[in-house]
Specification:
alpha+beta; Rossmann fold; two-stranded parallel sheet; 4 strands
């Protein structure tokens, strides 16, 4: 899935899923890509384009092995491989963000 092609709100629903009634138009439960890939592999392209909140949510899933659908009270355990790709230099982005934080707080 190309992460750069979807707005953040839609991306969260696609990745993590949603429960019926979680938002206007959520007429049925939707299993997100993490749940759909349970036992297999999920490929996420252009992860460098994800907003910070979605990056944090992605990290939480990778660390805990649990995904919480929008509107769901309990997380679900998932077991999968996640492959990611981007055209951006992520190491340079991290270094740049770290430098920016240091200059604004120091």
């Amino acid at each position: 899935m190309n992460a750069a092609t979807l707005r953040a709100e839609v991306l969260a629903s696609e990745l993590f899923g949603h429960e019926r009634g979680a938002f206007t138009g959520a007429l049925t439960r939707h299993r997100g890509l993490f749940e759909q890939a349970h036992g297999g592999t999920l490929f996420l392209d252009e992860v460098g384009e994800l907003d910070l909140r979605t990056q944090a949510d992605l990290l939480r899933v990778l660390e805990s092995g649990e995904v919480r659908a929008l509107g769901c009270e309990r997380p679900r355990t998932v077991n999968l491989r996640v492959l990611v790709a981007t055209h951006r230099d992520l190491a340079a982005m991290v270094t740049g963000a770290s430098s920016a934080r240091t200059s604004t707080t120091g």
